[in-house]
Amino acid sequence: MTSRSAYNGYRRKLVLAFDVGTTFSGISYSILDPGQVPKIQGVTRFPAQEHVSGSSKIPTVIYYDGVGKARAVGAEALSEGLYEQAEEEGWIKVEWFKLHLRPLGEKSTDLASRLPPLPHNKTIVQVYSDFLRYLLDCASKYIRETHPNGPDLWATLGPTVEYVLSHPNGWEGSQQSQLRDAAIAAGLIPNTQSGRERVHFVTEGEASLHYSLENGLPPDCLKHGGGVAIVDAGGGTVDISAYAQTRDDRSVARIFEEIAPPQCHFNGSVFVSLGARAFLTEHLKDSEFFDDLNNIVRCFDRTTKLRFRNAGDPQFVKFGSTRDNEPETGIRYGQLKITGSKVAEFFEPSINCVVEAVKEQWRLSHKPFSHVVLVGGFSSSDWLFQRVSDTLQPQGFHVIRPENHLNKAVADGAMSFYIDHCVRTRVSKFTYGQFSNTRFDPQNPDHVMRVKDSYISLSGHRNIKNAFSIILPKNTQVSETKEFSKDFHISRKTMDKLQKATVYVWCYKGKAAIPLWKDVDRANYFRLCTIVVDLSHLVNLGDQFKKEGPEGPYYRLHYKLVLMFGLSELKAVFSWKENGVEKRSPANIVYDPEG
C-alpha cells in the first residue's frame, strides 16, 4: 500500500485471515497496536513443512478414520508413508471440499458427480470446522514460537482474535452463515452475538484487489478515471471483479468502487485435472495400467500441468519405473506420453472462461478498464497466462500478473481488506426483491392470464399472488451506507396474528432485465433468506392498525423492508410506524442452508 495509516483503535488487537482454498490454504495475520502502522505477516511454517523455507501454503486435505476423526490434515496428509497407512486403516481422503459449499444455483448434478465425496458421517460445516480448527492451531503455534514473548502475546490476544474469512465471489449469506457456524464449532469464537461479530467476510475478488494494490498494479493503471479487472484464478473457482479509484489525492487513503457485478465460475485448476482424468479413463480403459489411474492423474497434477507451456510439444507424465512399458498406450519407461494439443484441450474451458468473463465485465462495467490483473495459484500457469494475454491483447486489454507469490494473494489481501478498507462501493450481482400481492387490473394481459392466482383480500379487493417486487436491481452501484427499501403490508383478521412478521428476500439470477412474475423463469428465483421480526408489543396498539372490510374488522401493518447491500454481508432492518413515528428493529436473518 502506498500509504497506510496508523491503527487508530483504542486497544491492542490480533487479526487472523484464513484463506481456505480448494487445493491450498494459507494464513496471514496482523498485530494492531494503537498509533502504529499495521504490518501484514504470514504464517510460513506448518506441521510436516518445517524444513520448507518460507512455505506460505498447505494442501487443503483431510484424512478421516472410520469414525469421523481427523487423523491427518494439511501437509501431514501428503507426507511420505501416510498413503500406505491410510490404505491399511481404511481412512477417507477429503479434498476439494470447499466446492461442496457452493450456492444452490451452482449445484449442478454434473459438477457434484465429479467432486470427491464427503465422508458419509460428516457435513460440509463439520469438515470446514475441522480444517478451521487446524488453521487456528497452526497460527497459534507459529505466533507463540516466532514472536518475542510469544506465549504471553497469544495468552493476551488469543481469546479476542478477530477473523477474516475469504470466500468466492459467488457465495452469499447462506454460505457466510455456514462458515460462521463452522467457526463456532471449531472454537474460533463463542456462540454469542459479540462472538459472531468477530468473524468478517471478504470476497476473493476484493481481497485480490487489496493484494494487487501492494504487489502488482502499474502506476498508470488507474489514471484518467479508468478501472482494472482482477482475475483470481484459484484451484476451484475463477473470480472476476472490476474496480476503479474514486480519489486521486495520494496524500489520503485510496478509495475504490466496484464497477461491475462480480463473477464466480467453476473453472479453476482442478477442472484441468478433471479433464485429464476423463481423457485418461478412456485412454487406459483396456490397459494393464488402468489401476494406476489415480497415481497417473496425481503425477499429471503435480508436474505436467504446472510445466505445460507449448501445445506443439509432446508431454510426459512420469508415474512408474523403467520396467513399466506399454507402447500401444504411449507408456515407455514409466512415462505416459500425451500430445501437447490434447493437454491444451484440458486448459481450454478455463481459458475461455477467463476471456469471456473479462469481456462480460467490460460490457456491464460502469467505467472503462484496459488492465487485467491475474492472481491466484492457477495464474502461475504460464500457458494460462499466455493464452489469456494473447486472446485479450488484440481486443485492447493489457494482461499482467504480480511478480510476488501469487498464491498468497487472497490471504494477504483479506488482511489488507480488514486494515485498509479500500472498497466503499459495490455492485449488486443479482436482482433482489420480495414476492408480494398486487391489485388485479382487468385491463392488464399479465393479470388476466393469471386470474386463477387471484383472491379477494380482507379489504375486499381482488389481488394476484406472486408478483416480484424489486428492491435492488442487478448491476446497481451500492455505497456502504446506501439503503434500499420497499413498502409492503401485512393484513390479518386478528391482532394476535401480527405479533411476528416473517418475510422472505429472494434473488433472481436469470437473464430478464426486469423480472416480474414467479411463474416466468421460475428456476432462476432463489430464496436468499428469511427475516423474522418480533412485533408482540404491538398487541396493545391494535386500534392504530384496525381497518374495516366487507367481512368485518381486520388489522393491517404497513412496513418497509430496508436492505443494505453495500457491506460484505447483507444487513436488514424492519421499519414501521407507531403513532406516526418511525420505529426500526434489526431483523433476525435466517439463511436456508441450501440457498
From TrEMBL:
InterPro entries: ATPase_NBD. Gene3D superfamilies: 3.30.420.40. It comes from the Eukaryota. PANTHER family: ALPHA KINASE/ELONGATION FACTOR 2 KINASE, HEAT SHOCK 70 KDA PROTEIN 12A. This is Actin-like ATPase domain-containing protein.
